[in-house]
Write a structure and sequence with these properties.
Blueprint lengths: L9 E4 L5 H11 L3 E6 L19 H7 L3 E4 L5 H12 L3 E4 L5 H5 L3 H7 L4 E6 L14 H8 L1 H9 L10 H24 L4 E5 H8 L3 H4 L12 E3 L5 E4 L3 H11 L13 H17 L4 H10 L4 E3 L3 H6 L1 H5 L3 E5 L5 E5 L23 H9 L3 H9 L12
Helix pairs in contact: 1-8, 6-9, 8-9, 11-12
């Protein structure tokens, strides 16, 4: 496999669950050597799955494919020493402990900086390491509520407040953390001195959510620019633009639509009748493909509403080679989604399966720290290291 853009960069990933591991997965696809350090109890995301998929869940696989794994009890003095020694052999460290936890374990920023002054660290937390909310537990659903995006969605569409059905806060924080870590690496390369950069999920959501800018206006701005239409047998169709714009574009290209609204009708009546006319016109198309062609002929960006699985396995995803098959560690394979970066000469690709707990204890500790197999076995016997058996789920 060709070298990735980050070939030669080594990362120690101390993180668990989602936001931090996502940073490590992106770095691994980009060619970095990412060593995931897992506690003896394992990353809890291994079990965020249906019962039959626990242990090596799809969630865990997707966030940790291509990494190597060492399983260390950092609560033991020898374990802490191993973590610091590994940090000394790496260019970057990822962590998403609650503020203060890494320091209590003796593997916080100051200690790691002493062990390796050139290493950089990115810390992902819910609400930052300073301030009145620093001790609060933060998962994506909590951050969604605290940032106001749940209320904003309900206000926009006139619906009850409901939770977002995916971990948006984690994903966006992970993306910002990856940018921050790359930036810190560039500074360390230029100056020879590493630094810690912090990304709070709260900050990441509010800085990335497009309607934050509208919410700061009085009265509240923002309009629906992506209405959904019921196209009858052709399913549901998303069309970009405000509804008056959609109507005018269609009328210009397809004048036979007419105007079902009386000239003296009020605005809500006109909007309701014109939407009904648009939906009837959409439903009359012989199939979705023809409907899309007709909408595009009117200068409208559009797409049929499909399921997540249909999108990830459909013709466009296959054309773009979006999925890669990796060993599921159970005698089969499973698909994972590639990182979206495409380079002219370098290769961004899934570089291996997700690791079992402690699968690379001997390999990593021998390669990076010079420990011989007998020493690794002694550390495992002492409970400093742990490893899942090869057939473990």
């Amino acid at each position: 496999m060709p070298e990735g853009p980050l070939d030669g960069v080594r990362v120690l990933d101390l993180s668990r669950v989602l936001a931090g591991p996502y940073v490590g997965r992106l770095f691994a696809d980009l060619g970095a050597d990412v060593v995931k350090l897992e506690p003896p109890g394992g990353d809890e995301i291994r079990n965020v799955a249906a019962k039959a998929d626990r242990g090596m869940s799809g969630f865990y696989t997707g966030l940790n494919a291509g990494k190597r794994n060492v399983c260390i009890d950092a609560g033991k003095p020898e374990g802490r020493e191993l973590v610091l020694a590994l940090a000394g052999a790496c260019d970057a460290v990822i962590e998403n402990f609650r503020p203060g936890v890494a320091e209590r374990l003796g593997i916080g920023w100051e200690t790691i900086h002493d062990a390796n002054p050139k290493a950089v660290m990115v810390s992902v937390s819910g609400f930052g390491s300073e301030g009145s909310w620093r001790e609060r537990r933060a998962f994506a659903p909590i951050v969604h509520a605290a940032t106001g995006i749940l209320e904003d969605q309900a206000h926009r569409y006139g619906t009850p407040v409901t939770q977002i059905a995916q971990a948006y806060a984690d994903s966006v924080a992970g993306l910002h953390a990856a940018v921050a870590l790359l930036s810190a690496l560039r500074v360390a390369e230029r100056t020879g001195l590493g630094e810690r950069v912090e990304v709070a999920m709260f900050d990441a959501v509010l800085s990335s959510y497009t309607d934050t800018h509208f919410a700061l206006l009085e009265p509240r701005g923002g309009e629906d620019t992506g209405p959904l239409y019921d196209a009858g047998p052709n399913g549901r169709m998303a069309v970009a633009g405000r509804e008056p714009h959609v109507w005018m574009q269609l009328r210009e290209r397809w004048p036979e639509l007419g105007d079902p609204a009386p000239p003296d009708a009020d605005v809500p009546t006109k909007a309701r009748r014109r939407r009904a006319a648009i939906e009837a016109w959409m439903a009359a198309a012989p199939n979705v493909e023809v409907l899309v062609e007709r909408l595009e002929a009117a200068g409208l960006a559009c797409a049929a509403v499909v399921s997540l699985r249909e999108a990830a396995t459909g013709p466009l995803a296959r054309e773009r080679e979006l999925l890669a098959l990796v060993d599921d560690r159970r005698g089969g394979t499973r698909p994972v989604v590639r990182a979206p970066y495409r380079f002219g000469r370098s290769e961004c690709a899934v570089r291996g399966p997700a690791p079992r707990r402690g699968e690379h204890n001997a390999e990593v500790l021998g390669e990076l720290l010079g420990l011989d197999p007998a020493r690794v076995r002694a550390l495992e016997a002492a409970g400093v290291l742990a490893a899942a058996p090869p057939d473990a789920r």
